[in-house]
Amino acid sequence: MQAGGGGAVGGGGGDAGDTRGRHRIRAELKKLEQEARFLEEELEELEKTDKVSAALQELVVTTESKADPLLPVTPGPACQSWDRWFEGPQDLRRCKCWFL
Amino acid sequence: MASVAELKENHAVATAKVNTLRERLRQRRQMLLDTDVERYSKAQGRAPVSFNPTDLVCCRTLQGHSGKVYSLDWTPEKNWIVSASQDGRLIVWNALTSQKTHAIKLHCPWVMTCAFAPNGQSVACGGLDSACSIFNLNSQADRDGNLPVSRMLTGHKGYVSSCQYVPDQETRLITSSGDQTCVLWDVTTGQRISIFGGEFPSGHTADVFSLSINSSNTNMFVSGSCDATVRLWDIRIASRAVRTYHGHEGDINSVKFFPDGQRFGTGSDDGTCRLFDMRTGHQLQVYSREPDRNDNELPTVTSIAFSISGRLLFAGYSNGDCYVWDTLLAEVVLNLGTLQNSHEGRISCLGLSSDGSALCTGSWDKNLKIWAFSGHRKIV
Q1: Count of Cβ atoms closer than 10 Å to residue B86 Cβ
Q2: In this complex, is the C-beta atom of A16 within 8 Å of any C-beta atom belonging to chain B?
Q3: At what angle are helices B4-32 and A14-47 packed, to 10 degrees?
Q4: Rounded to an integer, what distance in angstroms lies between the CA atom of residue B175 and that of residue A61?
């Protein structure tokens, strides 16, 4: 994504038009300068950042160590309530739902 | 005082500087991409996920909306779901019994998003009215049987595309908007606490479509935008985004944090899902479909969700597919869109129950469906 260029200053309006244009361009310039500072900071930070591979061992370990009811093979502990979706009709006396 | 001509020249120089810095950043980041999740996992010999054809089944179909379903959200506890539809209603469901507990007629029928409060006592929704409406589910219905709005959060200058309560905080909610900003609200007063983006640099430069709050660190959230970037925000520092993530080549329709809160996934109009590392900004993996044999236009990704371990990435597409990706090996292990009893239209929204035992999908076919694992489970 490229930084947007400043629009042309509007015609007619003489000095007033020039002033409005000047304010707008100055505001955009300030934004661009701020953004340049942010980008420079990010570049500095990136110089100290590890490569992608450094982060992946943790990802693999974390993913494979957590119990997941939707997986056919998963670490435990399993929970009986995982299978509630396939149990019989609920006890309606305790069910607080009502038809609309 | 500098003349207009001088200012314009300075502006051009500053623009060129920013573009150069962006390109240097892109190149530097490219040099750090020495591998991705797929290549790393395969090199490590990780075992693939393998489903039998009847392992994941549709165990409930929630019927009741008379229009396309656009959004859904589970309660953190219990088995309740709130859904929002083109029919201008929110419906609250007991997903276990399939019963509807509330049907809320909205003042503005053009709803795009809904969310459950952490205590399950309130729901929020927003859309083309550029506002977020809060309904207390315990309040008395009016003469027409409609639930009154308990609070309106107004202030956005564009549609509300997504809303989410801050986990464990009934009183705070974040919205994303077509006005290019996200807002943190105090629900009890209706006041905006912070605005993310907008006037400040480092905000999004196009409509924001989605957001996801980090459940491991609720001070952080990410937002996805039509400007093809994701931005990370610290709710304590609204003046600038913490980080911007580049990579996608189209509108980002969905963002979701990975369960451990260190990474997040995205789904986009460019037809891919991606996994990013929150702390470093690295793009860890791209999940791309095989091109269509008939050379049809690539389906876009409408919504994503991770299983509770993060091993599975569920992705709904504009052509009705719902791919189940193995996130480590970057392979499609199932397509819920082709299973028996599947939806008959585009899947527009997805969400996992809080214990990860069920996936709910919402569709343009007006239904919601609950999917769960019914096969033989091996505990290792």
Answers
A1: 18
A2: no
A3: 20
A4: 33
pLDDT value at residue A92: 43
State the pLDDT at residue A97.
39
A46 has pLDDT over 90? yes
Residues 235-274 of B with CB under 8 A from A: 240, 243, 246, 259-260, 262-263
Res. B348 pLDDT band, cuts 50 70 90: very high
For residue B118, which of B194, B171, B176, B189 has the smallest C-alpha distance?
Answer: B171
Q: Which amino acid is at B322?
A: C
Contacts of B377 in chain A (CB under 8 A): 69, 71-74, 78
Q: Which residue of B has its CA nearest to A95?
A: B97
Whole-model pTM?
0.91
Residue A12 has pLDDT above 80, yes or no: no
Please report the DSSP string for A36-100 in residue order: HHHHHHHHHHHHTPPPTHHHHHHHHHHHHHS--TTSSEE-S---GGGGGGGS----TTT------
C-alpha to C-alpha distance for B317 and A73, rounded to whole angstroms: 27
The verdict on whether omega for the bond into residue B48 sits within 30 degrees of 0, i.e. cis, is no
Q: Please check whether residue B14 touches A, CB under 8 A.
A: yes
Q: How far apart are CA A90 and CA B342, in angstroms?
A: 25
Q: Are A39 and B11 within 8 A, CB to CB?
A: no
pLDDT digits (tens, 9 = 90+) for A52-68: 999 999 999 999 999 99
Closest-CA distance of chain A to residue B51, Å: 7
Task: State whether ipTM is beyond 0.90.
Answer: yes
